[in-house]
């Protein structure tokens, strides 16, 4: 019976770029929210011929093997997005059904509190993106690997649609109250969605990628930003800040009015917000060494 080797060091995940003691960007300039080398897909191949024992074979096509770590992250994104869309959309639906029982403050609190609890509960697993605009912005700023973007976006879209149809089954026929449609002009709605998403990603980039920020308060900071943005824009544009916040309810209710605003404006605002914080962020040689704090990023 083989014996376990004695003295073998415990294998641990490599230091995530941007964490205390590690560089913000790795050699490949990939600084990922919830990214490490273990999540890189491994490959199996389709052999051209059938080799004899002990001889190598020639591969025609390499197929990536699904990675357990990435699968868990995508699963956490699905569940987190489901919870967020269910809570953020249920507030306006209840408001419509019970004639203003929630009010704008209640709607904002539903979304802000949902974001906060999801970041605190799943941020250490997937980074709690919950938002395709955030995922794209982080990939553009090289804080997240592009190869994981399709999987994250698929989880976010499917989680949103599932939550919206769940709400349709529970609150039918009041789902229309949860669809974000502008009550102002197209230009005003576009500008509002751009600005409030800019605000959101400026804060998210600070607490998620800067080791000098207090990462333990990430959930509170991001949730409060969502609440504030909905108080600002909720009555005008709906305060979406998130393409899947609008897409899922729109699919379930069959209402696609001005949908393009909520797909394009948040994405542009997210890239701008992440880019501006990256530009104004202090460099490592301009401040004292960072404190040993933890962030919700991995």
Could you describe the 3D structure shown?
- The protein is mainly α and 298 residues long.
- The chain has a domain at 74-280: Glycerol uptake facilitator protein (Up-down Bundle).
- 53% of the residues lie in helices and 4% in strands.
- The protein has eight helices and two strands.
- The protein has helices at 68-97, 103-126, 132-140, 149-171, 186-209, 218-233, 243-253, 259-280, and strands at residues 42-47, 59-65.
- Strands 1-2 form a two-stranded antiparallel sheet.
- α1 (68-97) packs parallel to α4.
- 45% of the residues are buried.
- The model is unreliable at 1-43 and 293-298 (pLDDT under 50).
- One of its GO terms (molecular function) is channel activity.
- The chain crosses the membrane at residues 74-93, 105-125, 187-208, 220-239, 259-280.
Largest sheet: 2 strands, antiparallel
- Sequence stretches where pLDDT stays below 50 over 5 or more residues: 1-43, 293-298
Question: Helix proportion of residues, in percent?
Answer: 40-55%
CATH architecture of the domain at 74-280: Up-down Bundle
Helix vs. strand class: mainly alpha
Strand content: under 5%
Provide the succession of SSEs: EEHHHHHHHH
CATH topology of the domain at 74-280: Glycerol uptake facilitator protein
What's the CATH H-level superfamily name of the domain at 74-280?
Glycerol uptake facilitator protein
């Amino acid at each position: 019976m083989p014996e376990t080797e004695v003295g073998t060091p415990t294998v641990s995940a490599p230091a995530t770029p941007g964490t205390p003691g590690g560089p913000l960007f790795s050699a490949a300039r990939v600084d990922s929210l919830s990214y490490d080398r273990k999540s890189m897909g491994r490959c199996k191949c389709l052999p051209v011929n059938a080799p004899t024992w002990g001889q190598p074979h020639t591969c025609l096509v390499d197929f990536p093997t699904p990675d357990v770590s990435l699968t868990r992250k995508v699963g956490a994104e699905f569940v987190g997005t489901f919870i967020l869309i269910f809570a953020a959309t249920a507030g306006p639906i209840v408001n419509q059904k019970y004639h203003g029982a929630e009010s704008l403050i209640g709607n904002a609190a539903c979304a802000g509190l949902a974001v906060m609890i999801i970041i605190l509960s799943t941020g250490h697993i997937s980074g709690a993106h919950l938002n395709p605009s955030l995922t794209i912005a982080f990939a553009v700023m090289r804080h997240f690997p592009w190869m994981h973007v399709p999987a994250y976006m698929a989880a976010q879209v499917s989680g949103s649609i599932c939550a919206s149809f769940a709400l349709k089954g529970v609150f039918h026929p009041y789902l229309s109250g949860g669809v974000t449609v502008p009550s102002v002009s197209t230009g005003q709605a576009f500008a509002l969605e751009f600005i409030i998403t800019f605000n959101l990603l400026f804060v998210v980039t600070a607490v998620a990628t800067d080791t000098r920020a207090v990462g333990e308060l990430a959930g509170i900071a991001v949730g409060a930003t969502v609440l504030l943005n909905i108080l600002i824009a909720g009555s005008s544009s709906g305060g979406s800040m998130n393409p899947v916040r609008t897409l899922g309810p729109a699919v379930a209710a069959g209402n696609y009015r001005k949908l393009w605003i909520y797909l394009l404006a948040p994405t542009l605002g997210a890239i701008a917000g992440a880019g501006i914080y990256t530009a104004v962020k202090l460099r490592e040689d301009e401040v004292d060494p960072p404190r040993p704090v933890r962030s919700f990023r991995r």
